[in-house]
Amino acid sequence: MQFSGDDMVNAVQGVVMQQGEQTQLLGVTIDSRKTRAGDLFFAIQGAQFDGHDFCREAVDRGAFAVVVSRSVEIPQKVSVINVKDTLTALGDLASWWRRRFSLSLVAITGSNGKTTTKEMVAALFEHTERVLKNEGNVNNLVGVPLTLLQLEEHHTAAVVEMAMNRSGELKRLAEIAAPTIGVITNIAPAHLEGLGDIEHVAQAKGELFEALSSDATAIVNSDDPFAQKLIKRTKANIIRYGSSPECDIQLLNIEEKEREGIEVTLRIDQKKIHFHLPLLGKHNAWNAAAAMAVAYVMKMDLSEAAAILETMKSFRMRLQPLHLKNGSLLLNDTYNANPSSTKAALEVLKNCSHHTTSIAVLGDMLELGKQSASLHEEIGNEVARLRIDHLFLVGDFASSVAKGAQKHGMTSEQINVFTTRDELIRALREQMSGQDCILVKGSRGMKMEEIVAALQQQEGKP
Questions:
Q1: What is the pLDDT of residue 194?
Q2: What is the distance between the alpha carbons of residues 363 and 336, in angstroms, rounded to a whole number?
């Protein structure tokens, strides 16, 4: 990318406090360690850091200009632009840059499945388009603007995952991105610490649909009662997917193939489309239906779209199947966790362990607020209902999960509670007998991936 300093100042509504030598900017960064020559550095203030403290480092690494909200000492050769709020200014610059491109932009949000759906939609676009997508978890008020600022003339489409944990955040993200298609995958108890209850989660997610213009399209999961209600809040065209015959994309049949993925049959415009999706869990059928809804809106060849979905690979740390040398199957689902995603993962564990020992290794689900204890107890109920053989727990709410499991029939011999991951790993290694099916899941802050790494190291893997 390349833009003039004057255009940038106008876009962020800034005041030039110091005029530097360079008038053309070549990139945007918020990380002084990754600054390159010609970059514009935004001094973002976070909970753990203040970018203003790193302006000098960014300049030393080649930044031509810095955007700040307080006074900093910078060499005269570098421009200093003052704004009221640097995070808002970053979004304003991204909004200005995005509107230079006339392209289809798909925005995807939801409590679960947004990353998988994003990857599916991007794969469909990549067949015929030059597509930009956000990588990893850069899906918030910092990540989405930085993604949009990577748009170039050769791009013909963009797929942007959007996340939030407070009301107003999706409204702002949609304001910045100006989506032509908006997808809400589902509404579930998540981020309750900041939003209170599922009704407020739904209201916050609905900000995406509210922001869509009348010539845009809203794609909604009609099997989710909270998501279904959100269509009343949009003036966009509406496409529904789900199991009802009234849906534009109807899920006719889903068949699990144990460890081989799922068989999916859809009806679109009275035509049946059948494909094998090599991802674990019935819930991924809804993600695939959402992706096919985007294909439908974009007038893609639907048979070709289904064939592309058949080539999808499992995503790292999202029900990622790892085969251990002793014959055990390890399901790495450590990217994040909330009640609905954990229940879906437990269903996969049960389905994958018909002839083996099933072991659930669970850490806390974070950001659930006042409902944390009761929602963790529900997970214990589910473990017992599915007749999982062994339960290994770590975290502040491990006792709540154990309580729910015991209430519904699991014995104390089946339930193991630990205060540290290291203790859990040692006990789990002793429990493993080979041919086990092991699910490891917890919120990102629980660092459950360390358990996965330890089990792989035991196998002689790096």
A1: 72
A2: 10
